[in-house]
Design brief:
InterPro entries: Secre_tail. With 464 residues, the protein is mostly beta strands. It has helices spanning 2-10, 379-382, and strands at 17-28, 32-41, 47-55, 60-69, 72-82, 89-97, 103-110, 116-124, 127-136, 145-148, 154-161, 168-175, 180-189, 197-200, 206-212, 217-223, 228-234, 246-249, 255-259, 264-268, 273-277, 285-289, 295-301, 304-311, 314-320, 333-338, 341-349, 354-364, 383-386, 389-390, 393-400, 404-412, 417-426, 429-436, 443-451, 454-462. Helix content is 3%, strand content 59%. Strand 2 (32-41) and strand 3 form a beta hairpin.
Length: 464
């Protein structure tokens, strides 16, 4: 059975990738915690990571900046604060590096007096310059998003609510070289966190993707030089909850973004919007584009980081990045590409009573020829599922070409067996089966038929 699982993840994924994983920092779970990682790579392709660290035994909380220099991890404190760590902490820092590798950070600080403030930090020579940009007089924090323009000037978005009303707004801040300017990009939402994602094009125009409630939908906003233009897509996938969309611009300045727990990929091709389901399913997803403007995604699956990408043949699901099944990642995941190779920072809490800041670098090893004992056959001829987008009932047709032991089961996108329907000896013949799948969560799954050390599959999606 272990051989079959290997086939599902690596042959159905059409990809093989090796992950080199190292521990950049660690904290004992009984003395503190770490979280909210943001990763970027410098000119030498070395990782820089910013994250939050708390000391439960000291009541000090810190925003940490981590650099890998000549093979060593160098740790420094960007900001720190004293207070009870359940009400005093840093949230969702976002890191960018300019053309000289100077770090820029947008971060939110939630204080013990229930106020929430947005800050911008930049390292100047040997010290950190920190500026307060905004504040909310209540304990509702928003995920900020930071991007640099062609002058390396920062732009930042976050969700804001005025103390005089109950309307949540998306604020956009931009440094013009002399001072900060701010404006309302959108207002009129009852969602406490729009989870905006910001990108700035080569004409220094901001693009924002965000969530909206009633109905649940994802929105795209673009500044055309005069006013904001909007495009919306209804999704009904339980948006919000601090899990935001992820936006990138391609070499033509066209937007690409992912959203939703089923990870929908949307992009503008210059004439119209295109949308597709990636096959990845998880609550926290990060997008980057390679040199061919093709999407790569890191996402959480069963609280472990996983990875997928698209090429001219379709989406390839590469399975888990973290090999330890007992490691829980939670909210902390960040992802970027360098020379088309994936790099991921995440925080794992597993065996040994440690929180560990982990950095993973992926290397593609090519598609090796599959052992003939485990080759894939024509899936259309041996197994069919209908409908491929289903709600409650799934119909399965499959062919047993040789008498013997047969297994028919449902697997998720990360190779975990979810439900087994058949596991017995079967005579040669054609079979039909109707399955009630109302107990399965929404997402993408594979129906897999295994016989005589061979596996065939069909993908289907559950939506409600």
């Amino acid at each position: 059975m272990k051989k079959y699982l290997f086939i599902l993840v690596f042959i159905l994924g059409f990809s093989q990738i090796n992950w080199q994983i190292e521990i950049a920092d660690s904290v004992r779970t009984d003395s503190g915690g770490i979280g909210w990682a943001s990763l970027k790579l410098d000119i030498l392709s070395q990782p820089r990571i910013v994250y939050y660290q708390s000391g439960w035994d000291t009541n000090w909380v810190k925003l940490i900046y981590l650099s890998k220099i000549q093979g060593q991890w160098i740790k420094e404190t960007v900001d720190s604060s004293y207070g009870y760590t359940t009400t005093n902490y840093y949230v969702w820092p976002d890191l960018c590096l300019d053309r000289n590798d100077h770090p820029h950070i947008a971060f939110v600080h939630r204080y013990s007096d229930n106020t929430v403030k947005l800050f911008y930090a930049k390292k100047v020579t040997n010290y950190w310059s920190i500026q307060k940009l905004d504040s909310i007089p209540e304990p509702h924090w928003s995920k900020p998003s930071l991007a640099l323009d062609t002058n390396d000037y920062p732009g930042i978005t976050w969700a804001y609510r005025s103390p005089v009303d109950t309307v949540w707004r998306i604020k956009y801040f931009h440094w013009d070289g002399i001072s900060w300017n701010s404006e309302i990009a959108y207002d009129g939402n009852d969602l406490p966190d729009f989870c905006p994602s910001l990108a700035v094009d080569f004409e220094n125009r901001p693009h924002i993707v965000y969530y909206q409630r009633n109905p649940d939908s994802v929105k795209y906003a673009f500044w055309n030089g005069t006013n904001w233009q909007f495009w919306g897509d209804s999704t009904n996938q339980g948006m919000g909850g601090n899990y935001g969309p992820s936006l990138k611009l391609d070499s033509s300045g066209y937007p690409h973004f992912i959203h939703g727990w089923a990870t929908n990929y949307v992009h503008w091709n210059g004439n119209f919007w295109e949308s597709e389901t990636t096959g990845a399913a998880g609550p926290l997803n990060y997008l980057d584009l390679d040199t061919d403007n093709l999407p790569h995604i890191a996402f959480l699956c069963d609280q472990r980081p996983a990875y997928c990408y698209r090429d001219s043949t379709g989406w390839h699901l590469c399975g888990y990045i973290e090999p330890d099944p007992y490691t829980v990642t939670g909210h902390s995941l960040s992802f970027c590409l360098d020379d088309n190779k994936p790099h991921v920072a995440y925080i794992g809490c597993g065996s040994g009573n440690w929180y560990r800041m982990k950095y993973a670098k992926g290397t593609f090893v090519g598609i090796e020829e599959t052992d003939t004992r485990y080759r894939m056959h024509n899936t259309g001829r041996e197994i069919e599922v209908s409908p491929t987008i289903c709600h409650k009932i799934l119909n399965i047709k499959y062919m047993v070409s040789d008498a013997g032991e047969v297994e028919l089961a449902i697997y998720d996108v990360c190779g975990k067996r979810i439900k087994s329907m058949v596991e017995r000896d079967c005579p040669i013949g054609d079979y039909k089966k109707t399955l009630n799948i109302s107990d399965l969560a929404c997402g993408v799954y594979f129906m897999v038929l295994k016989q005589n050390n061979e596996a065939v599959s069909k993908k289907f999606t559950i939506v409600r």
